[in-house]
Amino acid sequence: MDVPERVTVKEVGPRDGLQNTAGTVPTATKIAWINQLGKTGVSYIEITAFVHPKWLPALSDGAEVACRIQREPGVTYAALVPNVTGLARALEANVDEVAVFMSASETHNRKNINKSLKETYPVLDEVIRTAAATGKKVRGYVSTVFGCPYEGEISVERVKAVTDRLLTMGVYEVSLGDTIGIADPRQTNEVLTELTRDFSTEQLALHFHDTRGMALANTIVGLTHGITTFDSAAGGLGGCPYAKGATGNVATEDLLYMLEKMGVSTGIDFSRFIEAAAYIDDIVQQPLPSRQLSMYFREQEEKRQGRS
Amino acid sequence: MDVPERVTVKEVGPRDGLQNTAGTVPTATKIAWINQLGKTGVSYIEITAFVHPKWLPALSDGAEVACRIQREPGVTYAALVPNVTGLARALEANVDEVAVFMSASETHNRKNINKSLKETYPVLDEVIRTAAATGKKVRGYVSTVFGCPYEGEISVERVKAVTDRLLTMGVYEVSLGDTIGIADPRQTNEVLTELTRDFSTEQLALHFHDTRGMALANTIVGLTHGITTFDSAAGGLGGCPYAKGATGNVATEDLLYMLEKMGVSTGIDFSRFIEAAAYIDDIVQQPLPSRQLSMYFREQEEKRQGRS
């Protein structure tokens, strides 16, 4: 099986995972959690978003989070920004890099950021140019790549066009988002076959939600295409407030387990990571979909009961 | 993506799924459920096991179940049997075919059926010959193919030897069981690369448990090797009483969704099937791991609340 020897797993839990929790996670807890994540060997953490609090109240403490976390060497602490106002706040909070986002679907883009695709490009272009002027790298997200809750299927040509535009404007990487967790392995194969014709595998990342349980299957397809960057969230936290039926990101620890067992190294310490996932599970007080976390809690329970 | 156009999904929920429920599912409920499953378009249901009630008390009503269900045309109603005593009971209950089982692991085999591998062969041989004499087909299960809770890794040579022996004795198909849900896609690829050298894809089936969330990823690998038979259980029910950490089979509805979305036909009506899965979820009163079932219940809840 021809897959990369090493991949980068980008932890998006503190942003994508917590953005829908309606402010119930205290700032100090987020900071403690990010500090714990930073000690797992992970090389990239998306710690928050600098979006107007009206849209993402749960992340309105982004500046405090960014300023108070312990920065570990070798870890990139990134934040999502929608425009130059957000970028300014992110820069003030001294994040290492930023991520911009838009949708491959006209309707989802309008619902999510209240702009047409055409109107979005100059906004992101300004962010990318301003960030570059201060020496910050910019990552790009394209959402609803594999399907839109409003428009249904999205053509690969559309995805290609948005990806091309973002890369041309200067993002170093485009993360292809399966916002509603609808991608199947055949479709993932088709999309990647097309995109890797025009773009290098280093320019592409995959961002799967596990709504229908297909995230790891799609990851395998991504690996066989040579993709080396995968987004995930501890515990399988996550969702999108403007996409009905969009549940959690693929759980980082489920992804890590599969990769490491296949001999694909990630640089992340599994046992430290599962403890960080357990920490946030305990905080959010909702059953998280992670399989490894379920096993971990079952083992802990058995140890407690002395049955192990 | 080169995968078969059509596959057979064998529903093992009434046996593998319910064998650990300690007798809490009433016989009439099992019958009603199997009747419902039989109307979904599924072509094979493993309805029970004829094992001594001491070992599987939850399935001690096998004869009553087999005799009282409505038999749908085109559906094979099968039962698991450990020996000729079980076979005799299965034949008396007029099942369409039987399945025999053994482990690729010496230790697991001993724990599960109290015999060495060598001692097991003549017992199964007698079952296969007796069944053949009455015109019944026999399926073979090999468990712990991808790892054993006692012995760890199992060599492909061992799996090959057991598979070969079972096929030589006369089973029409060997179902390769990932009893503890530990198989990863690279390993699945390695095992299938080896096995398809000696056996035809028609002689092999895959039986994944989804303990670590890798079942659908492994299924993709199986499909690319041309395997066309996959075992699963409605709702993701299941487990093995003699293998610690062995949780549910891959959920049939999650498998069906992925296959149908990829254009691989199964002959099973998804919406009828999800209702059958919802029925048993309601009965077993424990949260089942199926993603499609979670979505179904969320949609039902939204409809009830008039928010949809």
From TrEMBL, chains A, B:
SUPFAM superfamilies xref list: Aldolase
Domain Pyruvate carboxyltransferase, residue spans: 7-274
Give one GO term, molecular function aspect. Answer: hydroxymethylglutaryl-CoA lyase activity
Q: What is this protein called?
A: Hydroxymethylglutaryl-CoA lyase
Record GO biological process: ketone body biosynthetic process; L-leucine catabolic process
Query: Is the keyword DNA-binding assigned to this protein?
Result: no
What UniProt keywords are attached to this protein's entry? Answer: Lyase, Metal-binding
Q: Which InterPro entries match?
A: Aldolase_TIM, HMGL, PYR_CT
Q: Which family does it belong to?
A: Belongs to the HMG-CoA lyase family.
Q: Which domain of life is it from?
A: Bacteria
In terms of CDD domains, this protein maps to: DRE_TIM_HMGL
